[in-house]
Amino acid sequence: xxxxxxxxxxxxxxxAAEKNKSEFYTGGVVEYSSSILTDTSKNVPTExxxxxxxxxxxxxxxxxxxxxxxxxxxxxxxxxxARSREDMIKYGIELPNPxxxxxxxxxxKSYSETLQxxxxxxxxxxxxxxxxxxxxEPCDTVNNDIKCKRKKPDGYNIYNTNTVFDRQGRVISRxxxxxxxxxxxxxxxxTAEVSIFETDFDVRFGHFICFDxxxxxxxxxxxxxxxxxxxxxPSYWFSxxxxxxxxQTHFGWAYANNVNFLxxxxxxxxxxxxxxxxxxxxxxxxNTFISGTIEKRLMISQLPKNVRSYKPDGxxxxxxxxxxxxxIEMQTFRPTEDWSTFDTRTWNITNGEVQRVCVHTDICxxxxxxxxxHEIPVGKIAYNYRLAANYTRRIYSYDRSCGELYCSxxxxxxxxxxxxxxxxxxxxxxxxxxxFDKITITANIKVLTNPDDILIMPNTLDTSMTPIDSDxxxxxxxxxxxxxxxxxxxxxxxxxxxxxxxxxxxxxxxNYALDKFV
Length: 518
What we know:
By secondary structure, the chain is an alpha+beta fold. It has two domains: 26-331, Carbon-nitrogen hydrolase (Nitrilase/N-carbamoyl-D-aminoacid amidohydrolase, 4-Layer Sandwich); 339-517, no CATH class. It contains seven helices and 22 strands. The protein has a six-stranded mixed sheet with strand order 5-4-3-2-1-12. Strand 4 (156-165) and strand 5 (171-176) form a beta hairpin. The termini are far apart. The relative contact order is 0.11.
């Protein structure tokens, strides 16, 4: 046993030394469909689903090792998620404290068989792995050693938790989701943890979960206060048109913060849930995938360790081609389409003329658009387009009122503005009748007391539900201006190619100062 341990230690040190020499690392992300969430019959015992998921996860870990992946990320809510609080307690997993750096497979009497198997597989394959799971933490209503979160305690706190294993299968980092999205069976931690860990290939990672990306904490604390430029991100995203589909949102956040972003997505197209990607900040999209069908898929790509100083060189990096499904293949993907129920404002596009629209005194958008219109063949359907601008507060989930702003072109299915932010369900007849030769959009946004309370992002989407590659547009911050006694920050997005298949093209932002629970 001692000889085996020494052999593993020597192998690990050799691998680490070789990895440190490279300016890149290889990331892997898994898109995964869990039958417990996609099976509508609900007749199959939960135990059967969980065993199916465990086997699949172990297989993905082996596969990732075979492709020289350094770090692997699994999605949110696809491992031991259950349909009731009782089942979450039954199948939830107790975790060691990351500070103790315990490998559960070495402590069979202390941890569940499931956690031991995961830990052992990671150790056998010698890579870093993030697994999102339902964690159960015994709580005490008497001594209050660990306080129970529920008003009616049931003996446990239940958390939606990221668990990170190192190459030895040790638990080295944990993050409990703070911004819950209709997760009534889970408990909210007291604070938004800032979870960071270091690797033997000289990269520090931070991580958070799904809905967290819409809020200031913990994401911006990782990036701005702790200088983290590599983010691991499990999600089970419910896409919403026209600004908040999965990869569209994740790409915009990664671009605006200029960070490597490894996003692993749950898959359930009938609820608009799909979207997995590896994004190298504002440099390039390494690999993305969104699907209209049930899928289980591993995607890998190389990423620069120092993305902010990296200058793309096609001769050095292996840029994996994304898997893009056609609009016809995406017909079964069902995003939410209730944008028109919010305080939306749209205008007709005037071809070739500069148009300026203002909302209150908080935002003014300038549009300069050149486009060609093609005659729609008989029997075909085509999108119309309108300008959209707003600075408002809207409801996310059921209990969060949040500040949102945008200047954008949006697709509409008819001439009626209420059809904007929707997509055609039958794409077999789709014809691209509008070709945009040039799009320039500038947003003048009133400066806040605390500049850290706002995040402005590029926001693009085509008819395959994927964002436009960063090679095809320019986005950035311009010189600020004074106007009517106020200071405005200016942002601009400009196309570098012509497009005939867009659903959204513009600027999207969040004003965190307007956020509150309702």
